[in-house]
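Sample entry follows:

_____
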Amino acid sequence: MRFRSGVLMATVALAIAGVTGAAAEEKRKLRLGTDGTYAPFNYTDPSGELVGFEPDIIADLCPRIGVECEWVIQNFDGIIPALNEGRFDAVMASLSITDERAKAVDFSLPYYAGPTRFIASAETDLGKLQAGKGTTILLGTMSDEDKAVLEEVSTAFANATVGVVRASTHAKFFEETFPGLSVKIYDKGENMLLDLVAGRIDAAVDGAGSTLNFIGEQKKAGKDFVAVGPALKGGALGKGIAFAFRKGEDTDLREKVNEAIRDATTDGTLGSLSVKWIGVDGSISDNVNK
């Protein structure tokens, strides 16, 4: 009987282990919230597949972490509330790190940092703006010369309507830096850019990657749009873009993501993917020391 009991106990133990293992395997699925409308970071191609810089990062990072990843599409302006309601496990939607957002979510290490730009038709007066051309202004540490450039930009945009995306760092930046100027708020970046092409707004504020992608696509269509004014970084625009997790939760998973970001920075993966999709190396070398 002892032998049979031992076999039975071993069988039960193995069965329990199997169930536990299956449950553990099920928990290894990582659901990622994104908006799917922000080329070249994440967007839906004609076949309905989500493509771009961030899906390519996920294709590399998830095997490093040892999880199976799936996307959940969510409008950007509600993406942090949806995360905190549990609709997905993390956000990966070109979400900039800011102090205000950090009160609501925990960020991973940033996987990309690039500037913000103004876009206008090259055929308009705004498209010919020379103020700040070829320069980068760090909003958190502006010199008097930088402030003078932004004043010149503000004057040039005095009679213009500028598009920004709701709940984005670009909207926050525009509100703080150019409070007297006319702004139109959009739920999606693609709708903002469609209105820019149609002439329903005079300019738009967007990230450098999206700006370069948009300018290239419009050039193929025979239309000439340009980035105007200085490139802008820091301050209300944040400290780079990162994954966001629910506050105080999933700390082990967040550290695994951080480790994968460090490794992908060290071996050049993030740099090469950002060059592929955005045209610049936006990887952050300091990540390897954090």
